[in-house]
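Input sequence (471 aa), recorded before submission:
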Amino acid sequence: MATPAATSAPLIEKHTIGYVPPEDRHGKVRDLFTLWFGGNIAPLPIVTGALGVQLFHLNLVWGIVAILVGHLVGGVLMALHSAQGPQMGIPQMIQSRAQFGSLGALLVVLIAGVMYIGFFASNIVLAGKSLHGVVDSVPVPVGIVIGAVGSGIIGIIGYRFIHVLNRIGTWVLGIGIVVGFGYIFTHIQTDDFLTRGSFNLSGWLATVSLAALWQIAFAPYVSDYSRYLPADVKVSSTFWTTYLGSALGSSLAFIFGAVAVLATPVGMDTMDAVKLATGSIGPLMLVLFLLSVISHNALNLYGAVLSLITLVQTFAYRWIPTAKSRAVISIIVLLACCFAAVGASKDFIGHFVDMVLVLLVVLVPWTAINLIDFYAIHKGQYDIQSIFQVDGGIYGRYNPQALLAYAIGIAVQIPFMNTPLYVGPVSAHINGADLSWLVGLLVTSPLYFWLANRETSYRRRMMGGKLAGSL
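Predicted structure, token format:
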């Protein structure tokens, strides 16, 4: 049932990183399905999904299996973060202060902000190329600016508008991608559609990792889009609607990319392959993907701005910015990204994807620590006032247990890494498969649980019975 706030909530979001009080809560749990389903049917996941057959030389069947396994596993972590939103009523990065301390959380917040900016810049380049593909007379740089402005307007209006657009996008893009699949399967242009490529363990593991990391990349901001829901929403409902929406939408997009490149001659650019494989409906598919990337990219801008505000608020702790402040910072980020994207090399997207893969190495142990702390240590009960205090309140400026587990969680991944900056010996031995994320999760989770349990009784005494939301 809709809350009274659901019908009276302003279109332009007034909150930024501050706690959302009960009277301002609105929305329905099912909105999380449409947000993450519609938002994941876009060019960047299509391009990423094609790598399983393009780069790792899997055939169609094993490529699809790897994609599904990766998204189903990674989606669990992503959805567990989403379920924190209604209980906490604050953005994910602010909540990290409860695990790392007010200053200890700065590194993770900064990394998340840089990652969002990287995704935003990459997506506006894709938007520019897509627009140029639809209308040849529009140069790519002009398309980049148009894509950025479109995403900027959506991001500035904020939370409610983002949800509204993705409710529409779920139906439009869902129908569009099903029609696209139907066209490709009835107009296959290659003789080796089912036989190109084969199973190889390293390629299969690499594709699983790509899919899982795609889901984990949402973890630092997924609860930002559930924090306005009423606090009494069931955790299971929040989890399942997010999980099903994200896993299904992203799997469809990944598989679509793989199918498109297998249905066209070897060596084609993925989006060119999509256009060729979808034939007469190709221009329409490109228009849908263009609208999707503009809408979805607003999430990256929104997350980047909230991260920047969190960084500033750490030192200016009395400042809880308004919608105007969020708009100004959004415009600054937008202009900087446009300047970088227009003036960068042709391999701009490749460079930023490489950067994001490096950043994920340091985000994986954060995911483990955050989830263990929320579900196993504090069981969702935090002192919100302390989170916004300059000294961290009962959580302090630094949490040695979290920082130690975090450092070890990064270190143990190094032998298993495969990034543009470094290839670990284990990864090199298994032909480049990157299993660092899995090792990071398996080591950091029990380690932090053990370290944090040593301090749990002390912290709970310090809380004095305060619960999340007690302002």
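Checked by second reader. The CA atoms of residues 372 and 449 lie 6 Å apart.
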